[in-house]
């Protein structure tokens, strides 16, 4: 008998909820595994100008208030030219412009940092610092400037966007001087101490079409940009190369070798300054078509992104003179098509996104430990748009304690196979505050398939909890279908594209982190705390005990 797909999905959901999976989690509050890097404090987007718009400022305010660690923001197009100069829509998809550099009729440079100032002001006013990207190529400097600007329609193919801004400069000296003038201006405007706390990286994904020059030309681009920054502020923090796809074949290794042994294009000396190393990691979700027994559904692929990380860490580890440097995953995403709209990226509004992030970031921290790499940041490539449809599918965080889960997949298995088997990945990450007065645990129930799966019946035991105490406070936060989920709330309203002001206020509240229940008192017996709860598929719990 053929069962209609919607009926099959409903039956599958009922079966999954009726047969919960028992998962036992143990945490030792006295067993410290090492420092837990605050990697989830970096964010970014293609479109720089949105930072100055009301919704952009609101997002920056949320990011700046995350605490306790400093939040950073990375964006493209900080040096891109508005084309034509009367361009009145710099806030469109995958585009942005600042007119930072133009030339007069005689080819003399004209520097204008008014718009970049507005962008950086918006960051700093909201407690966020710039992760400065030196790019892209101003039209007046591009070796092949036309066509220059573009309109992106959200289609899966983005090849039409790589226009004049992606080309090498007509003059390397002018390129280096532009970066010098920009960095010097930032020091004059914000002060040396402030700019010292920023990261300055050169370009974006030069191993693919974002850079229409050769590899050697990118090394020249890097040398001139870094020289410009350091001439303005010798104590600035510089790095790169922000390659796509982890090690990207030989790209990352050849770049690191250049910084150690290559001939510097500016000084002719050996090597080029580098204070941090950056690369990108991308997953590869697909859409599985419906069959008689299984509905059509999205399937994630965490293993692809983790392989990118694994490959890059392996290369970095091999450079003994550099492997102590901070490492950034400058774009750390479940897919590789920012701002695209297709069934392959439908995860962006759903529960699968936060559970993926929790599971993936934890494995990346584990890989960093395995390779003895100084992972400092994993940057979420997020987006904030004014004047776009609601929920249109764009991507919108002490010390580590010993924690074990009977439902957590092994790192090697996830690296090789992702999470595509019969069982979901029910994992845990636990930490203690530096002051020793707050214990936090994040627990997730993740699977690559966006399909119903059994709930996890969590039986959590924490030992050695605040010796001498008989009771502590417990706050349990949750992301699921009915908590911390503005998208579900919006669907329940009938998906309004013109919500009332009251509805907007409610949706913003629904999107904030919410408690599963009111704060409670947790009784301790001999330093042991026992907690039990259900965790649905693709849900995430954050438990704070203090």
Main traits of this protein?
alpha/beta; hydrolase; TIM Barrel; Glycosyl_Hydrolase_39; signal; glycosidase; Immunoglobulin-like; 2 domains; 546 residues
CATH superfamily of the largest domain: Glycosidases
The number of distinct structural domains comes to: 2
The SS-based structural class is alpha/beta
Q: What is the gyration radius calculated from CA atoms? A: 24 Å
CATH architecture descriptor name of the largest domain:
Alpha-Beta Barrel
Task: Work out the strand percent.
Answer: 15-25%
Mean pLDDT: 91
Largest sheet: 10 strands, mixed
Shape: globular
Residues in helices, as a percent range: 25-40%
How far the N terminus sits from the C terminus, by CA atoms, comes to 55 Å
The CATH class of the largest domain is identified as Alpha Beta
Low-confidence stretches: 1-15
- Which topology of the largest domain does CATH recognise? TIM Barrel
Domain Glycosyl hydrolases family 39 N-terminal catalytic: 99-508
Keywords: Glycosidase, Hydrolase, Signal
Active site: 205
GO molecular function: hydrolase activity, hydrolyzing O-glycosyl compounds
Describe this structure in words.
This protein is α/β, with parallel strands linked by helices and 546 residues long. It folds into 2 domains: 5-33 and 399-545, Glycosyl hydrolase domain, family 39 (Immunoglobulin-like, Sandwich); 112-379, Glycosidases (TIM Barrel), CATH 3.20.20. Helix content is 27%, strand content 25%. It has 12 helices and 22 strands. Strands 1, 14, 15, 16, 17, 18, 19, 20, 21 and 22 form a 10-stranded mixed sheet that branches. Strands 2-3-6-7-8-9-12-13 form an 8-stranded parallel barrel, surrounded by 6 helices. β4 and β5 (109-111) form a beta hairpin. α4 packs parallel to α6 (215-232), α8 runs parallel beside α9 (352-371) and α8 (302-318) crosses α10. The N and C termini lie far apart (55 Å). Residues 1-15 have low confidence and may be disordered.
């Amino acid at each position: 008998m053929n069962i209609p797909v919607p009926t099959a999905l409903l039956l599958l959901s009922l079966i999954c909820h009726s047969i919960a999976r028992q998962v036992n989690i143990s945490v030792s509050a006295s067993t410290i595994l090492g420092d837990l890097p605050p990697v989830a404090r970096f964010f970014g987007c293609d479109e720089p100008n949105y930072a100055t718009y009301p919704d952009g400022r609101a997002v920056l305010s949320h990011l700046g208030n995350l605490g306790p660690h400093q939040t950073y923001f990375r964006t493209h197009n900080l040096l891109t030219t508005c084309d034509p100069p009367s361009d009145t829509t710099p806030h469109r998809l995958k585009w942005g412009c600042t007119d930072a550099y133009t030339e007069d009729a005689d080819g003399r440079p004209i520097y204008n940092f008014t718009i970049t100032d507005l962008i950086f002001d918006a960051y700093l006013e909201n407690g966020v610092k710039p992760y400065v990207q030196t790019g892209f190529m101003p039209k007046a400097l591009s070796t092949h400037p036309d066509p220059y600007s573009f309109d992106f329609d959200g289609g899966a193919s983005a090849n039409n966007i790589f226009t004049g801004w992606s080309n090498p400069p007509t003059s390397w000296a002018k390129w280096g001087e532009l970066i010098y003038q920009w960095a010097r201006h930032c020091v004059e405007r914000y002060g040396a101490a402030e700019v010292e706390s920023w990261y300055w990286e050169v370009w974006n994904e030069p191993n693919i079409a974002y850079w229409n020059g050769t590899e050697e030309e990118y090394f020249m681009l890097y040398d001139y940009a870094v020289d410009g920054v350091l001439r303005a502020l010798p104590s600035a923090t510089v790095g790169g190369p922000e390659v796509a796809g982890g090690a990207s074949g030989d790209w990352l290794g050849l770049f690191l070798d250049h910084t150690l042994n290559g001939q510097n294009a500016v000084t002719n000396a050996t090597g080029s300054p580098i204070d941090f190393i950056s690369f990108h990691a991308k997953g590869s979700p697909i859409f599985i078509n419906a069959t008689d027994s299984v509905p059509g559904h999205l399937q994630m692929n965490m293993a692809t992104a983790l392989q990118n990380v694994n490959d890059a860490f392996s290369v970095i580890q091999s450079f003994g003179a550099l492997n102590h440097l901070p490492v950034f995953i400058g774009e750390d995403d479940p897919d590789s098509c920012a701002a695209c709209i297709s069934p392959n990226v439908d995860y962006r509004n759903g529960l699968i996104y936060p559970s993926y992030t929790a599971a993936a970031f934890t494995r990346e921290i584990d890989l960093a430990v395995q390779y003895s790499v100084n992972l400092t940041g994993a940057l979420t490539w997020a987006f904030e748009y004014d004047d776009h449809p609601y929920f249109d599918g764009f991507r919108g965080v002490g010390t580590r304690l010993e924690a074990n889960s009977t439902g957590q997949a092994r790192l090697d298995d996830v690296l090789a196979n992702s999470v595509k088997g019969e069982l979901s990945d029910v994992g845990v990450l636990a930490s203690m505050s530096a002051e020793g007065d707050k214990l936090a645990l994040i627990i997730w129930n993740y699977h690559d398939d966006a399909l119903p799966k059994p709930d996890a019946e969590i039986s959590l035991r924490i030992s050695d909890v605040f010796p001498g105490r008989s009771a502590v406070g417990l706050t349990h936060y949750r992301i699921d279908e009915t908590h911390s989920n503005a998208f579900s709330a919006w669907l329940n309203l009938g998906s309004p594209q013109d919500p009332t002001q009251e509805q907007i206020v409610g949706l913003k509240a629904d999107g904030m982190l919410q408690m599963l229940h009111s704060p409670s008192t947790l009784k301790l017996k001999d330093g042991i705390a026992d907690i039990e709860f259900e965790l649905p598929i693709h849900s995430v719990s954050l438990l704070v005990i203090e």
